[in-house]
Structure prediction request, 335 residues.
Amino acid sequence: MLVDHQRADSRQAQRPRVVVDAHPYEVVDKFESDTLRGEFGCGTVTVVGELDAAWRSVRDMLGTAAQDYSAAVAAVPASAARGVSETVARSVETDAANVPALRAAFSDVIATTATSSTYVRGRALIDEVDYSALPRATGTSSWGTNPTFEAIQRLQRFDRPGTIATPEQVNAAIAAGGQQLFRGFEEDRYLEDFITGPVRPGIGPMGTGTYATPLEEVALHYTDPTHTHDLATRHARLLRMALRPDANTITLRALESDRTRTLAQLDHELRAVRYIINPTNEQTAHYYSLLDKQLVLADIGQYGALHHWDAIDGSDTFSNKEWVVLNPTALLIQR
Prediction:
């Protein structure tokens, strides 16, 4: 894993918009901060008996926000009735067919209890972007920045920080199927910049993005590569996070396979234009636009972000189980 550091506008295709808090956005899910009461957590729910009793306990605390989801949760087998707690992440056993119901229910509970932020869903921009208009990295670009990727993030509205959440809310997200992740920082200021945003991407084996791992010991290494600090300092520079249960994720292998097909088609188009005798100005411009597209898609992180993915799962490829987050708004950050 490479260490990222914290800290590009393009034309955006016309599309339907809605207004959220007087700002134009694509359709997004909004976390409402005014419903946060700090009481939804693994230590505050005592669960005995069947899951419907557990859900009533949660519903009593959350009020009407939870009522619409009781039916979905009731569909989960009774073996899941051991509680809405951190234990759920380790012990809940459900039929595969019922996992989506649990995930949807808990996802909406999280959305109505976590500290205010906005989760923005991306959309497929792969065939809409003007690749020639995207900024390019130059010799004068700051180290640790990628103007092209950052421009794509702005187009997708991924250029916002994650959601600050309690440990209990992160536990609930993980129990509902969200991926637990850890990230270590060499300096306190890098950690604070990551929390407040904007999140500056880094570069690594999965292209550009924000690297994290589900292995706490791996993340701890990046808090102190020289092994000069005590354990307390190292833990203070470690963030525990979770992807939202409804985040759009894809494995690195699947994304690479998809990109291979896309690049093969792109190469076919390039060859067709390259050998035109006496090309028109329009054909020449098209040829160079295809070259620009090829260059952008060479970075698989950029390819994934243009395809709406929130994160890439490289856990079956790398020994440290790396993930790369393309959309920081899909993260719950424990504080």
Summary: The two ends are 23 Å apart (CA to CA). Residues 18-31+114-251+308-334 form one domain. The longest helix spans residues 252-274. The CA atoms of residues 40 and 61 lie 7 Å apart.
